[in-house]
Design brief:
This protein has about 375 residues and is mostly beta strands. The protein contains 3 helices and 18 strands.
């Protein structure tokens, strides 16, 4: 009897072992499927540094000028400077994307000036989900739809930002709906807490809208609008002020050939406070030529008029930028030598010791290291 029991126990042990192996393998397969259905996690980002030499040789080592925005990011003369360190974590499924875009450094502070405290490091933080096919809801803090350029250095041809882009909004906090009408047309509408603000300064909201079109191969165009009451409420009485601010923006890019691209950006804005109605405007032309798989050459010419001092520059400006973008180490490193000439209708640039000038010329070198996707 004892031997039969032992045999039975051994048989049961073998059976249970086989079941564990089988079910364990099945669970392992289910886990892989669950992982696939749950989505994927990715990490990416970049670090950029630069050196800039200003031929005005300002004694205060300042490229920004008296207004503080004669240049947007690369504002230091004859110094090796840190631009920005970015870490982007995203989690994506078939219908949802969660993004945390965290940045540090001088350019992060300049681009994210509307935030305070720990939020100062948040460049983007949003949740985007597909409600139905073609219709996506995004809510949180996200980059602006205005302009041809981006804050991210690896994504731009030129290292220095244009005054046209730099004097517009960088980001918004709010909610938006994107609808893909077809392969050629798209529409976006949203409600945001103003321009470059994590919190609204009044009880009114601004409205954002975009119409995108790609009518022919190689041509992409975006018609953008942003508007709302941007006057701050009285901090004592809480009374609501009335200052309607809005802008129209056109961005387009056309691939003339496989190695030659033309881009344009034109914008006009209006600011009405009571009976006073002021405006600002600007335009930029971008020419990009791919000399090889690793070398791109770009020219940017721009005009920006903020003579009414509505945005930040407070002057009329013309400038030209010449840049080469050289990719090395399988895309991990981007080197950008750049020459830029700035000219304004007022003496807003520093020159030598205690002297001002209408213009400045700089020669710079940026090195950008990227990682992840």
């Amino acid at each position: 009897m004892t031997s039969k029991i032992l045999l039975f126990n051994r048989a049961m042990m073998v059976f249970l072992s086989l079941m564990i192996l089988i079910t364990g393998g099945a669970r392992g397969q289910d886990t892989d499927e669950e992982k696939e259905s749950k989505g994927s996690l990715s990490l990416s980002g970049y670090v950029d540094t630069y050196y800039s030499y200003n031929f005005n040789d300002p004694s205060n080592s300042d490229n920004f000028g008296t207004t503080g925005v004669g240049r947007i990011f690369d504002g230091y003369h004859n110094q090796v400077a840190l631009g920005l360190a970015q870490f982007v974590t995203s989690y994506s499924t078939d219908r949802t994307e969660i993004v945390a875009d965290i940045v540090f450094g001088p350019n992060a502070e300049l681009a994210n000036f509307g935030n305070v405290g720990t939020a100062f490091s948040i460049k983007q933080a949003y949740v985007s989900t597909t409600l139905v096919d073609g219709l996506t809801l995004t809510m949180g803090q996200y980059g602006t739809h205005i302009g041809y350029e981006l804050v991210d250095a690896p994504s731009n041809m030129h290292y220095s930002l244009s005054n046209l882009f730099g004097n517009g909004p960088f980001y918004h906090t709010g909610a938006k709906l994107d609808y893909a009408i077809s392969d050629q047309f798209g529409l976006m509408v949203g409600v945001v807490n103003g321009w470059d603000a994590i919190q609204d300064n009044n009880t009114s909201k601004s409205v954002a809208a975009q119409f995108s079109l790609a009518p022919v191969e190689g041509l992409d165009a975006y018609i953008n609008w942003l508007g709302g009451n941007e006057a701050a409420n009285n901090p004592i009485t809480g009374d609501k002020a009335d200052a309607y601010k809005h802008m129209f923006d056109l961005t387009a890019s056309y691939a003339v050939a496989d190695n030659f691209n033309i881009g344009i950006n034109a914008a006009m804005g209006f600011d009405r406070a009571g009976t006073v109605n002021n405006d600002w405007m600007g335009a930029a032309l971008y020419l990009t030529f791919s000399a090889s798989d690793r070398v791109d050459l770009g020219v940017r010419g721009e005009y920006f008029d903020d003579s009414n001092d509505i945005q930040y520059l407070g002057a009329a400006y013309q400038g030209i930028t010449l840049t080469a973008s050289i990719t090395a180490l399988d895309g991990a490193v981007i080197v950008k030598p750049e020459f830029r000439f700035d000219n304004a209708d007022e003496d807003i640039y520093y020159k030598g010791l205690n002297t001002l000038s209408q213009s400045q010329s700089t020669l710079g070198l940026a090195i950008i290291g990227t990682f992840g996707n």
